[in-house]
Amino acid sequence: MPTQPRPLRRIWPLSLLLLLLTAFTGPTAPPKKLRLYLIGDSTIAQKVRQTFPETGWGMPLSTFFDTTVVVDNRAQNGRSTRTFLAENRWQPIVDALQPGDYVLIQFGHNDESEAHPDRYTPPADFRRNLLKFVQETRAKNAYPVLITPVTRRKFKDGRQQETHAPYSAATAEVARAQQVPLIDLDRMSRELLQQFGEENSKLLFLQLAPGDHPNYPYGRNDNTHFSELGARKMAQLVVGEIKAQQLPGLSGHLARPLPKNAVPPAAPGQDAQPTTP
Asked: pTM of this prediction?
């Protein structure tokens, strides 16, 4: 009696098997984004084209982190702790905070300005306002970081002077009392200016001769606000402290430098050129 032929076994294409496997396992969830809020004044804030090359140190900050960190710069020109609160700029941040987020807090330039009563904040009130920022950030299981006000350029006999003493001291006092990480940007920025020297430190600030830039046809002699170089240097100081202090959940997301012999990405419309070792 003749034997019946055995039925052919179906062979599934590999691509179809992978498709079925994906359907059962589901898409991989994207990594959770960590928001890094910045609150403060014009030394940090985003700038508009009409004020370029003025640059706040918060503007280049995102380039120092990987793509899981979102820098949300809420700093505003001319604001003190008092006016930042009075204008309801703080509460929307509190409402949006998620566990693990960070708030970097740097005020002082406008708080100390007694010549401008619309923004001046006495040191005692300044401390209370910083305390409010810290406590309400922690209430949302987020991390506050206090930053002393970045220095103004002010040399005397070749030495960079301290320009924010009472308000830097008040910031450090709140940090100690509340056991909050402190970035002493006042001290570090003074040391940086001293390294550059009285003349070369002008490169860090909005110092322009007449005709240097169309936004400032008559020039600019500004020892408070930064050039692009100055903003990047100040951001580097902040990032260096984030790394040195091993801030949890944040220091591990710093952007990693390219390997020594890596080929940099080509500009649009250009071919990448190999790097010579």
From this structure: 0.81
The predicted structure's pLDDT at residue 265: 47
34-253 domain in CATH 3.40.50.720?
Answer: no
pLDDT at 8: 46
Among 205, 187, 277, 200, which Cα is nearest to 241's? 187
Phi first, then psi: what are they for 116, rounded to 5°? -125, 85
Report which of 98, 167, 89, 166 is spatially closest to residue 133, judged by C-alpha positions. 89
Low-confidence ranges of the chain (pLDDT < 50): 1, 8, 11-12, 17, 262, 264-277
Whether the upstream peptide bond of residue 60 has omega within 30° of 0, thus cis, is no
Residue 145: CA atoms inside 13 Å, Cβ hemisphere, count? 22
| Tens-place pLDDT, residues 84-111 | 999 999 999 999 999 999 999 999 999 9
Cα angle vertex 185, ends 202, 92, to 5°? 110
Between CA 188 and CA 182 the distance in angstroms is 12
Residue ranges of domains in the chain = 34-253
